[in-house]
Amino acid sequence: MAAPKFEVPELKGYTDIPLLREGAAAEVKSFPANAQIQEALGFPGELAENWQETAIGRMGELLGKYRSLQVFMDACVHCGACTDKCHYYLGTSDPKNMPVARQDLMRQVYRRYFTFAGKYFPKLVGAKDLTREVLDDWYRYYYQCSECRRCSVYCPYGIDTAEITMAGREILDCVGIGQKYTNEILGKVHRIGNNLGLPGPALLDTLTGLEEDIEEDTGFAVKLPIDVKGAEVLLITPSADFFSEPHVESLIGYAKVFHAAGISWTLSSLASEAGNFGMFIGNYEQMQKVALRIREAALELGVKRIVVGECGHAWRVAYSFWNTLIGVGLGAGADDKYGRMLQQQLDPNYPQPAHICEVTYDLLQQGAITMDKEANDHRIITFHDSCNVARGSRMGDMPGGQFLIPREIIKSVANRFHDMAPETILEGTFCCGGGGGLLTDDLMELRVKGAQPRMDAFKDVVDNHGVNFMATICAICKAQFTKVLPYYGFDMSMVGGVHQLVSTAIRLDAKQ
Ligand code: SF4
Ligand code: SF4
């Protein structure tokens, strides 16, 4: 690893609150999207002359559409409870990375244009005009928020900075200022079907190669089927699972689970991406366009169940938004023809959608799959709760199922497990530092610094319990940690998926 061009924080093994350093992260800025990338998504390619009017107009629309946004703008009492809860503030010391300050970037403008006092006595209420300088600050600091929602857990009013960030990014996009990383990827999904731009034939090739590897390793012909009409399960998984390390090990784990349980399943070349970056930019139309590929694939293949692989934000979109986006899931609307068709097609005996961890957990409970726990004895494992699973969704039919189920799977497949410090897991989990559209090399400094709180908690269990493996169920967390672990002196192979552990332990020879 080349020497970093920034100072890597020193780990202490616990969360330390830094002294404020005004402007410490002001130079950290992700590359903006060019006109071609913006226009491909239907956004303006650059700032128009009347950008200010457009931005205020869009803000008014969002305030009308999302009542929560209006409440968040009005409700903050500046109590300060959230100030030290953001990993980017803890890692960078920049006061504008305090959640309340991030919110205030929008609140000042809201007051100026949408409140009586702000219109007539702006100075008295801290209202500000939406100037180019303010817009630049929005871009800078709304792309230094991973939309992890940790701050909202500690706010007495439940103010969710992530929603404010999403609104900020949506307004920026609608005036022609987008982020290259996120918007380029959205374009790839629309054109090709997945974030990596992996075309169907390349995907098929990769899967065939993996099947050969599994058979060579295990002696069992475990299949990775694609586009199989009439399969029971359609697996929607992040495209990183197809060839990135360690992600692919989890894909092999899912395949082994289906094989061992005798469940027919398929992947889809049309919907070869679980991730949905439309959520990151707060744009409902983009989010729906990405999600509709999944509905189309499910209808075409005639599957009975839709299962989502290890991807944090994809699970949040599936669990919390598919009902309105594509008409599937709890509370799904009945006014959409294709949504109704799919609801009739899907098996009502199963929750829709299901997480792969729910599937594996249920099979373990039923005794339908068996594990050789000793196969993981070389590992002492901890679990990193991913933000969007922890604070944006749940699993199973019990409160806190999203915390319990992955841990129960780990304990079923391995003998040695230690949780990290209580204030850094479950609802209070720290973001990996690369979520919410920040997993780009131009933000490496922010990613490394933002990972510090998680790395401190990890160091504690490494030093005191000999932990050598951090399991997670998110493709972004895996990609982020493989990059940042070495900055902190850890080996990149110390991170992997829960189904990587399942893959190691599952008995393929067990009689079902
Ligand atoms: S949502 Fe997460 S990243 Fe954004 S301000 Fe809150 S704690 Fe920080
Ligand atoms: S905790 Fe809530 S009310 Fe208090 S400063 Fe933060 S956002 Fe405002």
Structure write-up:
- The chain has 512 residues and is mainly α.
- The protein folds into 3 domains: 35-178, Fumarate Reductase Iron-sulfur Protein, Chain B, domain 2 (Orthogonal Bundle), CATH 1.10.1060; 193-357, no CATH class; 371-505.
- It is built from 22 helices and 7 strands.
- It has a 4-stranded parallel β-sheet with strand order 2-1-3-4.
- Helix 21 links the parallel strand 6 and strand 7.
- Helix 5 (99-114) crosses helix 9 (161-174).
- The radius of gyration is 23 Å and the shape is globular.
- The mean pLDDT is 96.
- One iron/sulfur cluster is lined by residues 76-82, 99-100, 103, 155, 157, 159.
- Keywords: 4Fe-4S, Electron transport, Iron, Iron-sulfur, Metal-binding, Transport.
Give the helix/strand layout.
Elements: H1 35-40, H2 51-65, H3 67-75, H4 87-92, H5 99-114, H6 116-120, H7 132-142, H8 150-154, H9 161-174, H10 180-192, H11 200-218, E1 233-236, H12 247-261, E2 265-266, H13 284-301, E3 305-308, H14 312-325, H15 337-345, E4 354-355, H16 356-366, E5 381-383, H17 387-392, H18 401-413, H19 444-450, H20 452-465, E6 469-472, H21 475-484, E7 495-497, H22 498-505
Parallel strand pairs: 1-2, 1-3, 3-4, 5-6, 6-7
Helix pairs in contact: 2-3, 2-9, 5-9, 7-9, 12-22, 16-18, 18-22
Keywords: 4Fe-4S, Electron transport, Iron, Iron-sulfur, Metal-binding, Transport
Domain 4Fe-4S ferredoxin-type: 67-96
Pfam family, one: Fer4_8
